[in-house]
Amino acid sequence: MRHNPASGAIVIMLRSLKMHGMAQAVGELTEQGSPAFEAAIPILSQLLKAETAEREVRSTAYQL
Questions:
Q1: Cβ neighbours for 24, distance < 8 A, ≥ 6 positions apart
Q2: In the chain, at which end, N or C, are there fewer CB atoms within 10 A of the end residue's CB?
Q3: Largest CA distance in the chain
Q4: Which long-range contacts (CB under 8 A, 24 or more apart) does 51-55 make?
C-alpha cells in the first residue's frame, strides 16, 4: 500500500465537494498503486480546483 500526499488531498477535496463515492474510489485506487491513477492525479487535482472555483462563483452569484 502506497500513500501519495496528492491523492490524500484529492480525497479531501472530493469529500468537501460531497463526492463521497468518488473519494472512496480514489482511496481504493491509491491502495492498489495503479500507475494509470498516479499519472492522472495532476489532472484530477486541476479539475477539482476548477469545480471548487465554479461552485464558489455560483454561490456568490446566488447571494447577490
A1: none
A2: C
A3: 47
A4: 51/17, 52/13, 52/16, 52/17, 55/17
Boundaries of domain holding 18: 5-63
Does the pLDDT value for residue 3 go beyond 80? no
Specify the number of domains making up the chain: 1
Residues 29, 8: Cα–Cα separation, whole Å: 11
Q: In a 10 Å sphere around its CB, with 0-12 CB exposed, 13-18 middle and 19+ buried, how is residue 41 labelled?
A: middle
pLDDT digits (tens, 9 = 90+) for 8-60: 999 999 999 999 999 999 999 999 988 999 999 999 999 999 999 999 999 99
